[in-house]
Amino acid sequence: MQNSNVFQIDRDFITLGQLLKEEGIIPTGGAAKWFLKEHQVKINGELDDRRGKKLRPGDEIEIVGIETVKIESKL
């Protein structure tokens, strides 16, 4: 079973690589490239492997087998 989390941002967007780092899934932003080659990530139900993909409030990210994260605005 996957964890389900809410991640609040205080800006317009966060990139997928930044989110993975902030959630503690990868140690550095640079590790995102390799992580995304090895793991499936769905953004709003569609597979995506772009570490620079902009995530905005309302987006739901599923890191298959690990966790689901809902992006919300802190503002």
Overview of this structure, please?
The chain has 75 residues and is an alpha+beta fold. The protein is built from 2 helices and 7 strands. It has a 5-stranded mixed sheet, with no helix packed on it. A two-stranded antiparallel sheet has the order 2-5. The longest helix has 7 residues, at 16-22. The model has no long low-confidence stretch (mean pLDDT 94).
Helix content: 10-25%
The total of helices stands at 2
Shape: globular
Order of helices and strands: EEHHEEEEE
Fraction in beta strands = 35-45%
Runs in which pLDDT lies below 50 for 5 or more consecutive residues are none
Main sheet properties: 5 strands, mixed
Query: Whole-number average pLDDT?
Result: 94
Oligomer classification: single chain
Alpha-carbon distance between the two ends: 31 Å
Strand order of the largest sheet: 1-7-6-3-4
Count of extended strands: 7
Radius of gyration: 11 Å
Structural class by sheet pairing and helices: alpha+beta
Summary keywords:
75 residues, alpha+beta, 7 strands, two-stranded antiparallel ribbon, 5-stranded mixed sheet, 36% strand
Summarize it:
The protein is an alpha+beta fold and 75 residues long. Helix content is 19%, strand content 36%. The strands form two sheets. Strands 1-7-6-3-4 form a five-stranded mixed sheet, with no helix packed on it.
